[in-house]
Specification:
CATH architecture of the largest domain in chain A: Orthogonal Bundle
Oligomer: homodimer
CATH topology of the largest domain in chain A: Neurolysin, domain 3
Distance between the termini of chain A: 63 Å
Shape of chain A: globular
Mean pLDDT of chain A: 97
Largest sheet of chain A: 3 strands, mixed
Low-confidence stretches of chain A: none
Helix content of chain A: 55-70%
Radius of gyration of chain A: 22 Å
CATH class of the largest domain in chain A: Mainly Alpha
Number of domains of chain A: 2
Number of strands of chain A: 3
Chain lengths: ~500, ~500
């Protein structure tokens, strides 16, 4: 058994190493690659993706998994060998349905499209991206059709990111959430608006980056096993347990973008850094689902990073980091500014209350496109219509409209947005559980200490990587299935207080 | 024929793309990788190297080359298809002698050793590197032994970098050169020393980098198809014709390091950027030999970058870039300082006259190690002994001694140093030819214009990539075989004047 297990791990590790090498190429493409490098880079990314797929679907992996099944099934469910064989089989059975050449094509398209989007976004030129997006829609449909028998064409794509989820379940869940959020947003926006002008003063880039780095280091992001760089669109990428990188962006006239993006990505990255190193190079060695991943980023960004306790410690430091700039702003005014709720245009900058409206409309648009109800050429208009209907705002252009998020342009339509809202829900479920176990977490936070929370997350969530599915993990950690109640309770309490709602 | 040629190009391009992808991993390892990333990175680099080797030795390439031989041999020698088939065959026949697993092992060792060296160099700890260097010596010997029938064990390694060269030829050539250089150094160092203290004032890093970038942009390095970053040891790396990157380093108390390193690497990079894009992904799409490559870096660094004409244009700009710092230094004093000849410790900082003494002693030490005459553990002492004998100086430690150059520690002993001296020789041969064709080059230079020289190099050298061997290229461009005479003439004229020798 030992020999077979070792052989399996070697084969899986090689497939994983191809993916990781490709992630380095992708990271470089977004951070430092000169413009001239784009075309060869797309070809190289496609090649490595195809190779990774070939390796991951090597029939020898299938044979070894068959041979190891009796061994694995006799182990406790959470034994790492049992989990390895279980998760490897799930991945293998999914992957063998997709031809490597198709994967190569999809990555080539994604890389080409990314290059076009980078330029088009700056130039507010949706039309330049349209032919790419049309091909991406077609490719996403083809990908789904490698998994016939679905209920909704988005299901295979959703399932890949959030195992076990389906369009119908999500539509119900999101409808339920929307029913609660719409009146909450209504109630809040009928109150006098919070003044967030303190966040919109001049904060030089270097100072913002330094403050963000100091902050996330204190939260627990390990710079010996990672780094932060600048990109259009912040992201986290894992090359190994010893190298999990994040990116951020800076607006010198808006403090929130860099700081909260950095905390958000550090949340993702601490999850990846916290996975047991022994899982490196195995299918267990990465976060278990998009939703659980976002639960970590959104928990740190919002539940922690936008809490009053957090700012009790950090606000004097922020004031010191930008001398003179915030002297006239009290902690309370700052805390309120950082939590201003408003009907706005940019998802990544949105407050906690309206955020899910941004996500859910994208989710709906994805499904409409996949179903063939919405054509790519009509997407900008549909975008504006939905923003007007759901948020009551209209972007002046596509740059702050349909071009704002990289996701679709990077190669896939379908399955890429639901994770954010799932993350908000799961994150508060986890946090409520952590609080029950350690009621001292908020007071630790006021002292700038995050060790209890970080250790609890590591112990209960991070270390396992993909050992458990999202559903299993939520049940195991919180004792309950996925539920929107803790999230609604959290929002209503926090924003009820901030906006003096009754 | 067309189909076969296309298939051949596809296969060669995939092998090349694996190497390029690996170069991205290597670049990242040297520039931005956090310390925790080292171990997985080594494994990933080894994997890609093995794959590249597997692809490059695919028997289908051999079959296609056989099928294409009659077609290629009926074309003119310099036709790009003829060259492609010719050079691809040469590479293929070389590569099939080396097992892919050995390549993987060699790269793994190189990556591990590089990580150890990076730390050991800072800590002046040769002992930490010794076991790695011993394994590298062993691996280099094994590599050579895949090519039995050599005259000297270093020959296959030399031949790989500088096709057609051998230890005996080089020993003769170097002996000839040494006979001329030793008395020249003697004569110069018996003159009153030049004062180079103006170069050793305080020059802040940001200003040095900005000045270096402006300079190399003006020489012709295209930042849309490249970039410059910081590393311990400067290097050039090519990912594609659209992405050729360089690195540099900065000493704030020594102006020459960053500036001349940048020009040196830009020389390499302009060669790579100037290769016809159609050669991208083929065996023609890279510089033809280490010697020709160094001819370009050394030509730009020294013949151009340390010439008086060059500084007529750049010196006022340098003064302006560091306000107040060089006001009391005349152009002439600066020019002399930038060309000070001295018996010194660091190869990359050495002046043009002593430089080859640094190279030749490394070459000799390489041969001694490969022959088994010198053990790795005795290398630091042998280093000190040779420096004392050849240059009359002794490093205070190994950091400025045997640990200074990355080459051996990066994975190979043998074949890695001769190119520098060959480059000095070939570079002046080329330059003398360019001058005959365009006597106006020096006066253009005085006006900060480098277009005539750059275009001449592009036309005669760059565009061809590996189409011609070094020997063929030298003969074709200069009308003569490799000769040290132009180089000696250049040195004697320039330094005779600088040091008032008769």
């Amino acid at each position: 058994m030992d020999t077979k297990l070792r052989e399996l791990k070697t084969l899986l590790c090689e497939a994983s190493d191809f993916r990781s090498a490709n992630s380095v190429l992708g990271w470089d493409q977004s951070t430092y690659m000169p413009i001239g490098g784009g075309s060869a880079r797309g070809r190289q990314i496609a090649l490595l993706a195809r190779l990774a797929q070939e390796r991951a679907t090597d029939p020898q992996i299938g044979r070894l998994l068959d041979d190891l099944r009796p061994y694995a099934e006799n182990l406790p469910y959470d034994h790492s060998d049992a989990a390895l064989v279980r998760v490897a089989r799930r991945n293998y059975e999914r992957l063998i349905k997709i031809p490597p050449a198709f994967i190569g094509e999809m990555y080539q398209l994604g890389a080409d499209s990314y290059n076009v989007w980078s330029k088009a976004r700056t130039e507010n030129d949706f039309q330049a991206t349209q032919p790419y997006l049309e091909r991406i829609l077609d490719t996403s449909r083809r990908l789904a059709n490698y998994f016939p028998g679905y209920e909704h064409i988005a299901d295979p794509l959703i399932d890949d990111a959030d195992y076990g989820m389906k369009a119908t379940i999500l539509r119900q869940l999101f409808a339920q959430l929307r029913r609660e959020l719409v009146p909450l947003v209504q109630a809040i926006t009928s109150q006098p608006p919070i003044d967030d002008s303190p966040l919109r003063r001049h904060f030089p880039q270097a100072g913002q980056l330094a403050f963000a780095e100091d902050t996330i280091r204190r939260l627990g992001y390990d710079f010996n096993r990672g780094r932060q760089d600048l990109t259009h669109h912040p992201f986290t990428t894992r090359f190994s347990s010893g190298d999990v990188r994040i990116t951020t962006r800076v607006q010198e006239d808006y403090l929130s973008d860099c700081l909260f993006s950095s905390i958000h990505e550090a949340g993702h990255a601490m999850y990846e850094q916290g996975i047991r190193p022994e899982h490196d190079g195995t299918p267990l060695g990465t976060g278990t689902s998009a939703g659980v991943h976002e639960s970590q980023s959104r928990l740190w960004e919002n539940v922690v990073g936008r809490s009053r306790g957090f700012w009790e410690y950090f606000y004097p430091r922020l004031q010191a980091a930008f001398p003179g700039q915030l002297d006239d702003v009290s902690l309370d005014e700052f805390y309120r500014a950082a939590n201003k709720v408003e009907r706005s245009l940019i998802r990544t900058d949105a407050d906690e209350v309206t955020y899910n409206l941004h996500v859910m409309l994208r989710f709906d648009l994805e499904l409409d496109m996949l179903e063939g109800k919405l054509r790519v050429k009509d997407l900008p208009e549909a975008w504006h219509t939905r923003y007007m209907a759901d948020l009551g705002v209209q972007a002046p252009d596509d740059r702050d409209g349909v071009l704002q998020d990289v996701h679709w342009y990077a190669g896939q339509i379908g399955g890429v947005f639901q994770g954010y809202t799932l993350g908000n829900i799961i994150g508060t479920q986890f946090y409520a559980t952590a609080l029950r176990a350690h009621p001292e977490i908020p007071s630790e936070m006021q002292r700038g200490q995050f060790n209890i929370l970080h250790s609890w997350l590591e112990e209960n969530i991070y270390q396992y990587g993909s050992t458990f599915t999202a559903d299993e993990l939520v049940l195991r950690v919180t004792g309950e299935p996925l539920s929107i109640l803790p999230y609604l309770m959290y929002l209503k309490t926090k924003y009820g207080e901030l906006y003096s709602l009754v």
